[in-house]
User: Fold 52 kDa repressor of the inhibitor of the protein kinase-like from Aphis craccivora.
Amino acid sequence: MSQKTFTGLTLLNILRNISIDTIKVMERFLKTNRKLLDFFI
Assistant:
């Protein structure tokens, strides 16, 4: 396996242990992209 593969597997393992609030992610994304905000509202 290459270094890139090991890095990807490590990141997947770390991200699995982090809880992500999808509502907060979408709110933050839509605040930075006003055109999409208008589309979703």
